[in-house]
Amino acid sequence: MPIYEYACDDCTETTEARRPMADADKPIACEHCHSTHTRRALSTFLTPASSRSDSPPSGPGCGCGNPHGPCGM
Ligand SMILES: [Zn+2]
């Protein structure tokens, strides 16, 4: 079962929850302030906080991240 992160709009803390994929977008209470103003955040494994979308994709070509050539898309 995947672990999802939820960012709290009230206290800006994140809450992690292990949930079925079917429940991923359902509301969850913040475990820090118990607010329900939470939004599902992307996994930190895929999007480190230091590299947001304002940095251009590295490498040539289609931007798929494969440095060794075209990805075939
Ligand atoms: Zn909170």
Protein architecture, described:
- This protein is mostly beta strands and 73 residues long.
- The protein has a domain at 3-41.
- It is 0% helix and 21% strand.
- The protein has no helices and 3 strands.
- The chain has strands at residues 3-8, 14-18, 38-41.
- A 3-stranded antiparallel sheet has the order 2-1-3, with no helix packed on it.
- The model has no long low-confidence stretch (mean pLDDT 79).
- Zinc ion (ZN) is lined by residues 8, 10-11, 13, 30, 32-33, 35.
List the helices and strands and how they pair.
Elements (H helix, E strand, L loop, with lengths): L2 E6 L5 E5 L19 E4 L32
The structure holds zinc ion.
Quaternary structure classification? single chain
N to C succession of SSEs: EEE
Strand order of the largest sheet: 2-1-3
Helix content percent band: under 10%
Given as residue ranges, the uncertain stretches (5+ residues, pLDDT < 50) are none
Percent of residues in β-strands? 15-25%
Largest sheet: 3 strands, antiparallel
What is Rg? 16 Å
Compute the number of helices: 0
Indicate the structural class: mainly beta
Bound molecules: zinc ion
What would you call the shape? elongated
- What integer is the average pLDDT? 79
Query: How many strands appear in the DSSP assignment?
Result: 3
Task: Give the N-terminus to C-terminus distance in angstroms.
Answer: 30 Å
